[in-house]
């Protein structure tokens, strides 16, 4: 190989090396800049992640507090409803007892009414029978009296009748025309 070609080659290689070194330096600078950008972006993302975590913890804490408050409110309302239910159940039982007592009293009053009514009907029937007996006795007694007095009445009626006839004849009237 001639010396010039070796020299040229070496020169070309040196230039190539310089060119490569310059390229590598440029690439290294760009890589360093990209790395710095990525580090900044990573730091921003880590900060954002930390903020999101912090916000998530705050939201979780608030949700837990609200959940706890709702549970306490629900338990309080549940206790109130249980007390109200016990009170209503007691009122219902009291009303049922009163209704049963009232029904028994009404049934007893109705039985007493029926018994009294039956007694009164029996008394009325007895009184009717006694009055009928008294009436028949009185009418029989009156008939006996009338039969005893009838002959006297007949004579008196006959005398009265005859007298009235005579009076009518004295006035010139025929008693049969009247």
From TrEMBL:
Q: Where is the composition biased (Basic and acidic residues)?
A: 26-36
Superkingdom of this protein's organism: Eukaryota
Record localization: Cytoplasm, Cytoskeleton, Flagellum axoneme
Where mainly found?
Answer: cytoplasm
- Does Acetylation count among this protein's keywords? no
Kindly give the InterPro entries that the UniProt entry links to this protein.
DRC12-like
Q: Using the UniProt annotation, give all residue ranges assigned to the region (Disordered).
A: 1-36
Query: Which keywords fit this entry according to its UniProt record?
Result: Cell projection, Cilium, Coiled coil, Cytoplasm, Cytoskeleton, Flagellum
| TM regions (residue ranges) | none
Answer whether the UniProt record assigns the keyword Amino-acid biosynthesis to this protein: no
Q: What does this protein do?
A: Component of the nexin-dynein regulatory complex (N-DRC), a key regulator of ciliary/flagellar motility which maintains the alignment and integrity of the distal axoneme and regulates microtubule sliding in motile axonemes.
Give the record's family classification. Answer: Belongs to the DRC12 family.
Quaternary state and partners of this protein?
A: Component of the nexin-dynein regulatory complex (N-DRC).
State the protein's name: Dynein regulatory complex protein 12
The organism is Rhinolophus ferrumequinum (Greater horseshoe bat)
